[in-house]
């Protein structure tokens, strides 16, 4: 029974919150509170009374009743609620509208800060508790609670609309939504893995709700392909393992197949965007038997496409890494890296340079020192220190450096 | 929903290659016609401002602006929009969004929490 309720929660929470936002005329606080009450009541009564035939309709009716009670007591909303309360109440799950897209787009509106977008998406769409979100972002529950409260208040006060943006705004806004998901994913990639799962799950919801948007498919494909490599990314001691040294038999084959297929289907639409191209690059890596058997020329070509649609120094850096593995070789790549501006505070810039210096028979010590100094996590610092020791011992080696989680 | 649109000068702004800012009269004409712009004008510089306080029932008048910063507010408009998206669209088409900064302040009606 508890598993069944959990499954209904996973799918139903966002829908219920969205429906209640509409029902309360945009009172996000009341919407969330009544949704939470409805699930609490379900947890109390369903185990003994059994699952209702139409659980979503049951939850919606319960949440509505609760919202009306609260609003009546508050009296403040009296002039507004009676008219919306007249909306028809569905008794069939199929009649309950699915406004989750409206919800996602509103949570990721550019009028909200990135921090607020991420927190709100996790709370209102994914249904994580404030305490869970606080833990994942290493802040106190109180801080996270305030962040979410302020974001909900801002939506109302600033006049952020609850809707899927009209066509002329959609490309820009969809890209904002996908960035929030990807931010979430990356946060989980180096921290709490639950965030990765939630990002992938929300990605699936988005693809199901917007089947004609290849960039949504691309973002989901990219997350699936990167997540597939997770089991091989750390060794027993928790140290990072670079791509060259990863045990590819530990990668998740089903997830790779799904991601690669999704990416291919997206690209066939002929509207390649940054997420699709990054997914295609990730697919090249994920389907290669080993480093030498990787199609580096194709990867370099894909980075060439990526720099056209999403130019930036990190793309240049990754392109250089790919070029170093093609016939052009590390010397050509080093020239590309040395021409990059604006990445001198980025540890992987120096780590990449160090690698290329080593592979062209030069001393990487200084570049490695810079990389170590700038490494953002302890795991990455340890990896680079290990590499510095190895460089002192053995001299030149071949193979690309560790790749950033964002493959572009 | 009503917004006070503060039209501000950006002291950091240096004119770049990206010209083509819309014309302010065209903007005002269109927004008036659509019923979005309820009123609006330029404001005289801070040197023309007067600050008023009443302390111990005495009216204290000071010449100059309340906030002693660089002269930033150059004008204002009151907009009546469907939502923030529309207000952003309207603000983005004002020439001072191209050469300065525009701040949108939602109006807080007295009968709302």
Automatic annotation (TrEMBL), chain A:
Domain annotation DUF6596: ranges: 173-266
Superkingdom of source: Bacteria
Composition bias, Pro residues: 398-408
InterPro entries per record: DUF6596 (IPR046531), RNA_pol_sigma70_r2 (IPR007627), RNA_pol_sigma70_r4_t2 (IPR013249), RNA_pol_sigma_r2 (IPR013325), RNA_pol_sigma_r3/r4-like (IPR013324), WH-like_DNA-bd_sf (IPR036388)
SUPFAM superfamilies associated with the record: Sigma2 domain of RNA polymerase sigma factors (SSF88946), Sigma3 and sigma4 domains of RNA polymerase sigma factors (SSF88659)
Domain RNA polymerase sigma factor 70 region 4 type: 106-155
Domain RNA polymerase sigma-70 region positions: 15-74
Region of interest called Disordered, as start-end residue ranges on this chain: 386-408
Pfam families noted in UniProt: DUF6596, Sigma70_r2, Sigma70_r4_2
Keyword annotations of the record: Sigma factor, Transcription, Transcription regulation
Alphabetical list of PANTHER family matching this protein: BLL6612 PROTEIN, BLL6612 PROTEIN-RELATED
Family as reported in the entry's similarity comment: Belongs to the sigma-70 factor family. ECF subfamily.
Protein's name in the database: RNA polymerase subunit sigma-24
Species this chain originates from: Actinoplanes couchii
Encoding gene (name): rpoE_8
UniProtKB/TrEMBL annotation, chain B:
Family statement: Belongs to the YciI family.
Domain YCII-related: from-to ranges: 1-111
Domain of life: Bacteria
Protein name: Transcription initiation protein
Stored Pfam families: YCII (PF03795)
InterPro entries: Dimeric_a/b-barrel, YCII
């Amino acid at each position: 029974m508890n598993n069944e309720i959990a499954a209904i929660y996973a799918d139903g929470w966002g829908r219920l919150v969205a429906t209640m936002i509409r029902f309360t005329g945009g009172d996000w606080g009341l919407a969330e509170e009544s949704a939470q009450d409805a699930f609490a009541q379900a947890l109390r009564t369903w185990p003994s009374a059994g699952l209702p035939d139409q659980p979503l309709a049951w939850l919606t009716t319960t949440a509505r009743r609760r919202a009306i009670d609260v609003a009546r007591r508050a009296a403040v909303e009296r002039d507004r609620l009676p008219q919306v309360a007249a909306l028809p109440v569905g008794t069939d799950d199929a009649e309950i509208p699915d406004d989750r897209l409206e919800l996602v787009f509103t949570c990721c509106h550019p009028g909200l800060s990135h921090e607020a977008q991420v927190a709100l998406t996790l709370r209102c769409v994914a249904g994580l508790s404030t305490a869970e979100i606080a833990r994942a972002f290493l802040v106190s529950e109180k801080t996270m609670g305030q962040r979410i409260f302020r974001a909900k208040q801002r939506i109302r006060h600033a006049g952020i609309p609850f809707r899927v943006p009209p066509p002329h705004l959609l490309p820009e806004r969809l890209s904002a939504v996908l960035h929030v998901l990807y931010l979430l994913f990356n946060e989980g990639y180096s921290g709490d893995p639950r965030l990765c799962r939630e990002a992938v799950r929300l990605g699936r919801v988005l693809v199901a709700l917007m089947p004609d948007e290849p960039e949504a498919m691309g973002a989901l494909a990219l997350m699936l392909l990167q997540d597939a490599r997770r089991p091989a990314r750390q060794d027993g001691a928790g140290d990072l393992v670079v791509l060259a040294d990863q045990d590819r038999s530990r990668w998740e084959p089903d997830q790779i197949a799904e991601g690669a297929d999704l990416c291919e289907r997206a690209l066939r639409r002929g509207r390649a965007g940054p997420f699709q191209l990054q997914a295609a690059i990730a697919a090249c890596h994920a389907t290669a038997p080993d480093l030498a058997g990787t199609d580096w020329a194709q990867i370099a070509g894909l980075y060439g496409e990526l720099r056209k649609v999403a130019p930036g120094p990190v793309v240049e850096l990754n392109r250089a890494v790919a070029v170093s593995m093609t016939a052009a070789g590390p010397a050509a790549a080093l020239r590309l890296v040395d021409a990059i501006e604006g990445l001198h505070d980025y540890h992987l810039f120096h780590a990449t340079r160090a690698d290329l210096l080593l592979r062209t028979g030069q001393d990487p010590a200084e570049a490695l020192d810079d990389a170590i100094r700038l490494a953002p996590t302890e795991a990455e610092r340890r990896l680079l220190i290990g590499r510095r020791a190895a460089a002192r011992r053995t001299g030149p080696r071949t193979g690309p450096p560790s790749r950033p989680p964002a493959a572009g | 929903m009503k917004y006070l649109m503060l039209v501000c000068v950006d002291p950091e702004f240096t004119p770049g290659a990206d010209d083509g800012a819309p014309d302010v009269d065209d903007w005002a004409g269109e927004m008036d016609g659509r019923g979005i712009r309820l009123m609006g004008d330029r404001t005289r510089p801070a040197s023309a401002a007067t600050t008023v306080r009443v302390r111990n029932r005495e009216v204290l008048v000071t010449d100059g602006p309340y906030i002693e910063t660089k002269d930033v507010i150059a004008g204002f408009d009151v907009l009546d929009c469907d939502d923030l998206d529309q207000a952003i669209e309207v603000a983005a088409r004002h020439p001072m969004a191209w050469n300065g900064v525009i701040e949108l302040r939602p109006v807080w009606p007295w009968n709302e929490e």
